Amino acid sequence: MNNMSFKPLLTVALILASCSDPASSPPLTQAPTLEAAETVFTNGQVYTVDAASSWAEAVAVRNGEIVYVGDDRGAQAYVGANSITVDLGGRMMMPAFQDSHIHPISSGVEAAQCDLNGLDDLDAYRRTILDYASANPELDWITGGGWSMSVFGPGGAPSKAFIDDLVPDRPVYLVSQDGHTGWANSRALELAGIDRNTADPVDGVIDRDPLTGDVLGSLQEGAMSLVSRLVPPVSVEDRIRGLEYSRDLLHGYGITSFTDASVRRDDLLAYRDLIERDELNMRVVASLRWDRNQGLEQVDTLQALRAEFEDGGLLRAGTVKIMQDGVMENYTAAMLEPYFIPSGSRGISMIEPALLNQIVSELDRVGFQVHFHAIGDRAIRESLDSIAAARANNGASGLRHHISHLQIIHPDDFSRFAELEVIANFQPVWAYNDAYVTELTVPFIGEDRAQWMYPMKSIEDAGGMIAFGSDWSVTTANPFPQIETAVTRLPPGGDTVPVMQPEERLSLESALVAFTRNAAYLNGQEDRTGSIEVGKLADLIVLDRNLFEIDPAEISETSVLLTLFAGTPVHGSLDALKE
Questions:
Q1: Of 235, 274, 464, 563, which sits most exposed with the smallest number of CB within 10 A?
Q2: What are phi and psi of 176, to 5 degrees?
Q3: Per residue, what are the HEC states of 438-459?
Q4: What is the pLDDT of residues 378-431, one digit of tens each?
Q5: CATH of the domain at 448
């Protein structure tokens, strides 16, 4: 559908409404009572993201809920002596965004550590590490992360010697931007007892010099724990500060709900602290992390955490996160066919498929939504198979299981998302030809398999539901660059690379639904959020431009002027909009 088609339709509808009998032209939706609203927004371009993709002019809010959606004339019935009326000046209003896969606490904590996010060369890494170490002489360990594997070439294996030159006297441990590789200096490796004779764990790899066998300094997947277990733990207080930082950042991007992709008990305590102080202002689904070093006995512990922290309000702890593979760039994503590397590896299935079937069936039986990490086509198939096993054992549960990342999906599995009612949870800003794809992935899987990369439109066409998440801090939490790339399959703000599978481009409408209505469904909130309809919570945003009236390459430049959480501004202000 042409992106410009909605505005004229709205204009015609409003002209017809103004020329007809008011009794014969009711607003789009209207509350049964005309009690005055607290806030009435008028003269807007309101994209409701309801099932009909309706547009409206006005929205009225009372007690945190939407009580009217329709035209300006109908909104006047909700204006009372104490109502605040806000003229949107033709600006676009839409439902607030929901992020289906994000790491707000760890990302907030990392921002206060040695933060390499956004840096893209060794000189920048050198300056940042040295400056941070010099500014924090009291720290026993230098920790942080955000470095890019593409800076280090195929395999993404940085050397300990680089850090040794900067910080030789203290252990240093820095996690990669995607969270799947650790980078340690010699002191950290020594404390962990890692040398050329240390065996690789079953779920990871200690990178070694191919000629000498010496340990390089990079640790892939499960090997990270050999060092990370020694790192001083992050306190609950630090987690709270990290969460506060992330909350404010996300509000600025128009996000009011999210799924935290991996939490432990201390993270839940941080959420509880902000809830008790009435300062969270977010609706949170917490994905309890499945420990693959334990077995089914941990289900009891997970149930206890759910019972302790499920508050029936802002925090829901009924999801379990399972890591089923690694990532393409270090050849740990589980593939049906081998990588084009000397070892002939097909990656790592973190949980043996027969055991995964048992785990998912048991989690499904006791009412947990399952949230998978699966990058490679084998890991995705194993995840789908485990959900099929759960359905066979328990029947259709309606628990909204979902698989995140989905980099390479075999075409034979496209239709299974709809058949099994599994939500495809994509991180859309990954779907373009950056260095991770062109230098670290395609040469090692081949052009044929690369055609199956992030097949969003194919899943949609096969009847599957698509939801979007950012995976921040792996990539930006800002939804607008992600929406742009979903629509263009190009880097945000530019077209300097070939389009990645142009047939997989989504419409703007589908991309917005994936970040609103479908994400609300994934988060179990579709009856209260995700669209602008009477009776739903007033989680709303106002943009500085109408996304349907601009070139798609400009979507990433969009700013959020106002974010409302249950009708209360948490970013921007009503007064600023009225100026």
A1: 235
A2: -65, 165
A3: HCCCHHHHCHHHHCCECCHHHH
A4: 999 999 999 999 999 999 999 999 999 999 999 999 999 999 999 999 999 999
A5: 3.20.20.140
pLDDT tens by residue, 114-169? 999 989 899 999 999 999 999 999 999 999 999 988 898 887 789 999 999 999 99
d(CA 216, CA 160): 6
Query: Measured between alpha carbons, how far is residue 509 from residues 39, 199, 265 in Å?
Result: 27, 50, 38
Residues 512 and 563 in one domain: no
Residue pair 443/340 in contact (Cβ under 8 Å)? The answer is yes
Average pLDDT of every residue of the chain: 93
Same domain, 346 and 242: yes
Residue 436 CA, chain-centre distance (Å), reads 19
State the residue range of the domain holding 390.
236-522
Residues 6+ apart with CB under 8 A from 38: 61, 62, 63, 82, 83, 84, 567
Q: Cβ–Cβ contacts within 10 Å for residue 35, how many? A: 12
- Kindly state the percentage of the chain with pLDDT values over 70: 94
Q: Are 515 and 568 part of one and the same domain? A: no
| 391 CB-near residues (< 8 Å, 6+ apart) | 397, 420
Rounded Cα gap, residues 511 and 545, in angstroms: 17
pTM of the prediction?
0.89
11 CB-near residues (< 8 Å, 6+ apart): none
Are 489 and 442 in contact by the 8 Å Cβ rule? The answer is: no
DSSP notation for 466-518:
EEE---TTSS---HHHHHHHHHHSS-TT---S--S-GGGPPPHHHHHHHTTHH
Closest CA to 570 of 19, 97, 55: 97
For residue 448 the two structure tokens come to 């044929």
* Tokens 């909130």 sit on residue: 525
- For residue 80, how many other CB atoms are within 10 A of its CB? 13
Tens of pLDDT along 262-282?
999 999 999 999 999 999 999
Q: To which H or E segment does residue 65 belong?
A: strand 65-70
Claim to verify: residue 260 and residue 341 sit in the same structural domain: yes
